[in-house]
Amino acid sequence: MYGTLKQFLVNEISSLHDQKLYKHERIIESPQGAEISVNGKKVLNFCANNYLGLSSHPDLIKAAHNQIDSRGYGLSSVRFICGTQDIHKELESKVSEFLGTEDTILFSSCFDANGAVFEPLLNEQDAIITDALNHASIIDGIRLCKAQRWIYSHNNMSDEIGEDQATGKELKGLERCLKEADSAGCRFKMIATDGCFSMDGDIARLNEIVELAEKYKAIVMVDDSHSTGFMGKTGRGTHEHHNVMGKVDIITTTFGKALGGASGGCISGHKEIVEWLRNKGRPYLFSNTVPPSTVGATLKVMDILMASTELRDKLEENTKKFRNAITEAGFDIIPGVHPIVPIMFGKYPNCSQLAVDFSNKMLDEGIYVVAFSFPVVPKGKDRIRVQLSAGHSPEQVDTAIAAFIKVGKELGML
Ligand SMILES: *Cc1c(COP(=O)(O)O)cnc(C)c1O
Question: Residues 268, 338: one domain?
Answer without folding.
Answer: no
